[in-house]
Design goal:
12 helices, Beta Polymerase, domain 2, alpha+beta, about 15% strand, globular
């Protein structure tokens, strides 16, 4: 595995421990990526990885839960596998998406990563409603209360200045609500968006603030209706998740020790 334009030393810094699953996240995974050669682009290349830390982090006093690295066009976040599983139990939209990518959006799948993919259904619960609508409310608030956070590039700041609100937050808001509603209804997470052309319209500022707010209101209502009809379990089975964590770690260290 190699990220284009990075050196071996940079890769080692981004992935300090053994990765078992790596894939695209963000705009590439959502079919909404605009290359930085486009003057309207406000996107990085986002990647998420799951790693297994050294044995001393499980048997000794050392701890490692992950790291995030910003390197030129790459935004790479890596989680230790138990941290990842704890977030999955809460139906965290960002980490859950890694288990539902298109095949060509995975950069690395080792045995432990395949075990996570094989058990992705256990994390599809009614908690999807709380997590996806919660994240959507966050986007709704930031959409009109921008403070030029550090993650904003100059192009995005310029678009915010032009519109008076953050269109990228508006696009995320609508996507999250649609994904959450679909997941509650079907038990599947559609990360690759077939509504990408419309989401890109929003991200480019082609919708008015009033149009986005009206769409959000409609989507929040649809999400609530989907929750009321949802037949998924209330919560993930913690004992089963814990068993999966043990199996992944046992398998990894047994192989490592020969």
């Amino acid at each position: 595995m190699h990220l284009k334009g990075t050196t071996q030393a940079e890769m080692a810094d981004m992935f300090p421990h053994i990765p078992i699953l790596v894939g695209y996240r963000g705009s590439i995974a959502h079919n909404c990526y605009v290359p930085n050669t486009n003057p309207m682009s406000v996107d990085d290349k986002d990647v998420m990885g799951i790693s297994i830390a050294p044995l001393e982090c499980y048997m000794g006093l050392d701890q490692w839960e992950g790291k995030e690295t910003f390197l030129r066009e790459w935004d790479v976040v890596v989680y230790e596998v138990r941290k990842f599983l704890r977030l999955l139990e809460k139906a965290n939209p960002n980490v859950l998406s890694l288990l539902w990518l298109q095949p060509h959006h995975y950069l690395l799948i080792e045995a432990g990563g395949q075990m996570l993919l094989d058990h992705r259904q256990m994390f599809m619960t009614k908690q999807l409603y709380q997590s996806f609508t919660g994240y959507a409310y966050g986007q709704l608030k930031r959409m009109t209360h921008h403070n030029y956070a550090g993650y904003m590039g100059s192009k995005r700041k310029a678009l915010v200045d032009k519109l008076g609100w953050d269109a990228k937050n508006g696009s995320h808001l609508c996507r999250l609500l649609r994904m959450g509603t679909e997941a509650l209804a079907t038990g599947e997470l559609h990360v690759f968006r077939h509504d990408a052309p419309q989401l890109l319209e929003i991200k480019r500022g082609e919708w008015s603030l009033e149009q986005v707010q009206a769409e959000a209101q409609r989507l929040f209502h649809r999400a609530e209706e989907a929750f009321d009809r949802c037949t998924l379990p209330n919560h993930a089975d913690h004992a089963a998740v814990n068993k999966l964590a043990v199996e992944i770690l046992q398998s990894h260290f047994a192989k490592e020790q020969g």
